[in-house]
């Protein structure tokens, strides 16, 4: 799947890896993923893992189960975002917002991600909010960056409320504007 969004994600990932190498001489590292198996792991430290992205292992993977569970169609971009690669979450900034881009770490994580997206969408449906699909977390646990499922815009939203601010017209532009943040481990 070589769409503009998957290319933009791969380009950002390569920038992320390059900057880790430049600043630390090592691949990206994560303490959060320590002890969690993944084909991405290239080395293990005292309480962290070093990782590199891997091709997504499931042929023709999609978020169709999420769509079917809620009987809605999902923006096509979101399928590519979550099924282009396996990788660790990546820190970045978008203008003045520091975020962690959500990625899939292994096949079990892909199942968990789909369950979390379903839970998120069910909550929105119950609260009569338009559907969104999260793509990044923030320090604040009540705010996140999501894709609006109606328009494809990337928004900053407050969970469970109508507070939403458009950040970018689409996923590709959003990914292209991200700036890598490196936080060396150990």
TrEMBL record:
<keyword id="KW-0997">Cell inner membrane</keyword>
<keyword id="KW-0472">Membrane</keyword>
<dbReference type="Pfam" id="PF07348">
    <property type="entry name" value="Syd"/>
</dbReference>
<comment type="function">
    <text>Interacts with the SecY protein in vivo. May bind preferentially to an uncomplexed state of SecY, thus functioning either as a chelating agent for excess SecY in the cell or as a regulatory factor that negatively controls the translocase function.</text>
</comment>
<protein>
    <recommendedName>
        <fullName>Protein Syd</fullName>
    </recommendedName>
</protein>
<dbReference type="GO" id="GO:0009898">
    <property type="term" value="C:cytoplasmic side of plasma membrane"/>
</dbReference>
<dbReference type="InterPro" id="IPR009948">
    <property type="entry name" value="Syd"/>
</dbReference>
<keyword id="KW-1003">Cell membrane</keyword>
<comment type="similarity">
    <text>Belongs to the Syd family.</text>
</comment>
<dbReference type="InterPro" id="IPR038228">
    <property type="entry name" value="Syd_sf"/>
</dbReference>
């Amino acid at each position: 799947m070589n769409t503009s969004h998957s290319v933009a994600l791969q380009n950002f990932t390569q920038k992320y890896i390059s900057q880790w190498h430049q600043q630390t001489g090592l691949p990206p590292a994560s303490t959060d993923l320590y002890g969690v198996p993944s084909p991405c792991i290239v080395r293990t430290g005292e309480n962290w893992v070093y990782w590199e992205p891997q091709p997504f292992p499931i042929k023709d993977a999609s978020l169709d189960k999420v769509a079917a569970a809620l009987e809605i169609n999902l923006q096509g971009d979101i399928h590519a975002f979550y099924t282009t690669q396996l990788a660790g979450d990546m820190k970045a900034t978008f203008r003045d917002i520091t975020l962690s881009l959500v990625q899939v770490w292994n096949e079990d994580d892909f199942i968990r991600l789909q369950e979390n997206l379903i839970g998120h969408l069910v909550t929105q449906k119950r609260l009569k909010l338009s559907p969104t699909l999260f793509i990044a977390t923030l320090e604040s646990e009540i705010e996140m960056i999501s894709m609006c499922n109606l328009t494809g815009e990337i928004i900053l939203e407050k969970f469970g409320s109508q507070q939403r601010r458009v950040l970018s017209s689409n996923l590709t532009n959003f990914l292209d504007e991200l700036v890598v943040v490196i936080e060396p481990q150990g």
